[in-house]
Task: structure prediction
Amino acid sequence: MSSRGMADAGRDEVGRRVLGAWDAFLAQAGAVDLQRGTRLPGWRAHEVCVHLGVWPDHAALAGLTAGARSGGTGRAADPDAVNAQVTAAHRDASREEVLAAVRAARQATERYLTDEPAELDTAPTVSTVGRLPMLSVVLGQAYELAVHGLDLVSAGAPAPPAEVLQSGLAALADVTGALASAGGITAGAALVTPDGGWAFAADDAGWTVRRLAPGEVPGTAVEAAADLLLDAASGRVNPVVALARRRLRVHQLAGLLQLAPIVQSAPGIPGGPVLQLAARTLDSTGGLLGRMRRG
Result:
């Protein structure tokens, strides 16, 4: 297959999606009281924003870019430990400082897209879930921003735009396809919403990602509203409960089970709770019809 998913779509497409997600998140952050609690235990809107920002002691994208330049070697940092460290260090930062740090993160992404050589886009770097092409890691921010945008809603922020949620799902499909390919898995699946969705197909040579039209359900798929798909993928919502309440549907569950081994190699991956659902459902004689994790 020798494809590299959304990295093959190029900087214009990825940049449009990820910078749009940053702009939407900044609008949400600017509209919410950062001292308000969120649905994440122990995290105010302040902590949600702090850990996404660029600080003198925390510049995630710069480290990932350096990793891509050096060949994508090394070990991934523990995201929970990093998050705990940065949020503790900047617990008392002012609202102005926090929003400036988030704007700096958006600017760092824009600088990468503008200044770094194009050949770096397909170079591997070590992300928190494994080795991924650099441009896939950049797009991965759209997933994180969509999920954390939904977190801010629980603190009183306006909802993220529908296109931001779709960009988050594109990133989720891309990462899952990349990890399937890295694991030598030949399989694919779709993330389907009423507004369309995204499908990926992987083999040991690479993976592809494509946009789906509304109503298109190509084989193995997980179907729900976009916000629910993101909440289930991130562990904010229990997919078992959503399935039992018919808010989430799985098509061709056996096909989804082919992807479940990814969770063993990358237990914290986006989408892990849904893949675990597939494994548990097919492993249960009676069926399951009748981790909250900071990203």
The CA atoms of residues 34 and 45 lie 5 Å apart. The first strand starts at residue 124 and ends at 127. DSSP finds twelve helices and seven strands in the chain. Residues 282-295 have pLDDT under 50 and may be disordered.
